[in-house]
Amino acid sequence: MNLKQLLCIGLTFGILILGIFLVPAQASSSELSSSSFLRIHIRANSNEEIDQQVKYIVKDEVVDYLTPLLANADSKSKAMDIVNQNLSEISQIASLVLDREGYNYDAKAKLTSEYFPLRCYDNVVLESGEYDSLILELGTGTGNNWWCVVYPPLCFVATNPDNSKDITYRSKILDIINNFFGR
Question: Residues 12, 128, 116, CA angle at the centre, nearest 5°?
Fold first, then answer.
């Protein structure tokens, strides 16, 4: 084995050891419980290609609408209040997209609790279970869906007040590993 391989094995072992000591403490914290998250679930009218395509157009416009509203939400309850106050606007935005794109069905938004399966978002794992959710049904809402997390904002990227650039989140550990391997 060469030095680079030994260092890689040592670094991996070190990260695993840190994980053993850090992950249980984080997993037991209330920050990672299902009660800490507000999810979003957009259900397409059907699995027909045209209904699936418009689902993503609706998603983009709803996310664009919600992102500045939720930019200062510093708690799940505040995020839920903001979403709840804007349910009719969310439905209206989605319905306007559907109408503009030539669809003859509407959209309906609601805030409820719903079961979600296990899901990974980059380095965040959300266990299966009941989550408070913004549900947006397009037409019958029986097609494949898109889901993500409204709070904390795993799918919503806020912009700086001067709108000059997007905020980027980085992993310090990943940066160290990439620098080590010259990536």
Answer: 130
pLDDT of residue 56 exceeding 70: yes
Residue 78's CB is within 10 A of a number of other CB atoms, namely 14
pTM: 0.67
Residue 48 near residue 143, CB atoms below 8 Å = yes
Q: Is the peptide bond before 68 cis (omega within 30 degrees of 0)?
A: no
Q: Which residues contact 133 (CB under 8 A, 6 or more apart)?
A: 38, 39, 40, 41, 111, 112, 113, 114, 116
What is the average pLDDT across 174-181?
A: 59
pLDDT tens-place string over residues 37-55: 899 999 999 999 999 999 9
Q: Does residue 81 belong to any structural domain of this protein?
A: yes
State the residue for tokens 């040592």: 10
**Residue numbers of the domain that contains 151:** 32-176
